[in-house]
Amino acid sequence: MKEIDGISTEDLQKELDNRKEKEKLEAKPKLLTEYNIKPLQEICQKYIDELAAEGYVYSDLDHYIYETAMEVCFGQDVFKYINSISN
Fold it and tell me: For each of the chain's 87 residues, which pLDDT tens digit applies?
């Protein structure tokens, strides 16, 4: 570890900011290399079935499709990251 005597508060703050940015980038979810699309297929089928049977779709189903697609692509913990950034 370097000595910090003689380093300005501004330089220390810049270093902390750089490290936080680096941590944020490293924590960013990455696309999975293998996908289990069955959950996405099931919810999309539910959407079509509901539309055909009722003539409309339950209002939150679009959001559930989005959530399912994100989890299929990035894994179950993707919303932990999204919520940590957007809150």
Answer: 467 777 888 888 888 888 888 877 777 899 999 999 999 999 999 999 989 998 888 778 999 999 999 999 999 999 998 998 876
Q: What is the Cα–Cα distance from 52 to 56, expressed in whole angstroms? A: 8
In a domain, 3, yes or no: no
Q: What pLDDT was estimated at residue 2?
A: 62
Cα–Cα distance for residue pair 24/27, rounded to 1 Å: 5
The rounded distance, in Å, linking the Cα atoms of 27 and 21 is 10
Closest to 47 (Cα-Cα) out of 58, 37, 38: 58
Look at the chain and report how many structural domains it folds into.
Answer: 1
Burial class (CB in 10 A: 0-12, 13-18, 19+), 4: exposed
**Any residues with CB less than 8 A from the CB of 1 and at least 6 apart, and which?**
none
CA 53 to CA 51: how far, in whole Å?
6
